[in-house]
Design goal:
3 helices; five-stranded mixed β-sheet; single chain; 7 strands
Length: 153
Amino acid sequence: MLAEQVDGVIGVDTHRDTLAAAAVNTIATVLASMDSPANARGYRRLVDFARSQIPCRRCWALEGVGSYGAGLAAFLDQAGEQVVEVLRPKQPAVRGGRKTDMIDALRAAKEALSAEHLIQPRLRANAKPCVPCSSRGTARFSPTPPRSTSSRA
């Protein structure tokens, strides 16, 4: 079980423009939560958040690794962080109430802690977490490599 290998889990609900993250300890007690933009700057904020909440052995439980979470997964992998994938729920997370991104982030973390078999994400070969986009050194995720202008014979 994952709870025997880590001190806590950061669950992340991924969307095109935003990421909701929740840090939980091994008994699924919520330590803290935050929202962040889905870009390289936001990824760095999430890593800083994780380090402040779970400084030692931690794991990231991400939804949507094959889509909106691909950039974050590649960034975390490159940073040497442990990442597992959790599936998005088929049904709304809350009956009779409102579903929120933070509820989904908490569910992701708790699901990883209780899972008997963890899903190791397959990172897309063309996912690049940080590609310089200006001379100021800012970076952003580039989902596909630039196309070659040369023709193949």
